[in-house]
Amino acid sequence: MDQTLQVRQAAADLVAAFASNDTARYFACFSEDATFLFHTVPQPLLSRRAYEDLWASWLADGFAVLGCESGNAQVSLQGDVAIFIHDVATRLRVAGEVLELSERETIVFRLQGERWIACHEHLSVVSLS
Questions:
Q1: Distances (CA, A) of 45 to 6, 36, 40, 51, 126
Q2: Is the pTM of this model over 0.90?
Q3: Measured in whole angstroms, how far is the alpha carbon of residue 54 from the centre of its chain?
Q4: CA atoms within 13 A on the CB side of 87
Q5: Domain architecture of the chain: domains with CATH
Q6: Count of other CB atoms within 10 angstroms of residue 26
Q7: I want to staple 63 with a disulfide (CB 3.0 to 4.6 A). Which of 58, 68, 99, 109 is the partner?
Q8: How confident is the model at residue 123 (pLDDT cuts 50, 70, 90)?
Q9: pLDDT in tens, 88-122
Q10: Cα separation of 43 and 37, whole Å?
């Protein structure tokens, strides 16, 4: 399989794990040293553990992913690094309220052996201007 298709598959696996609220499978898509920058969180998360801890606190407060769809995906290969960008439509339950979000996301993957693993994720709001 060509590398672009491998990256697309790695991204699809990550989105599917997130969409199904499969915490273990979702976090297995990220390297331990992955970093995360979310517009909904006041500071960057500088490790997978930091994000896992935040996720656990969200779950304790009733957070759940109800669905997630990816569209307009693009892949840019940069040697052993790939940049995946896409639009994301997400349904979440937060504190008993269902939210429908339209966001844009960049996921950076690096080739680790034969596997593309996510090492950075940046989520932003879709600007209408």
A1: 26, 5, 12, 6, 21
A2: yes
A3: 14
A4: 7
A5: 3-125 (3.10.450.50)
A6: 21
A7: 58
A8: very high
A9: 999 999 988 999 999 999 999 999 999 999 999 99
A10: 7
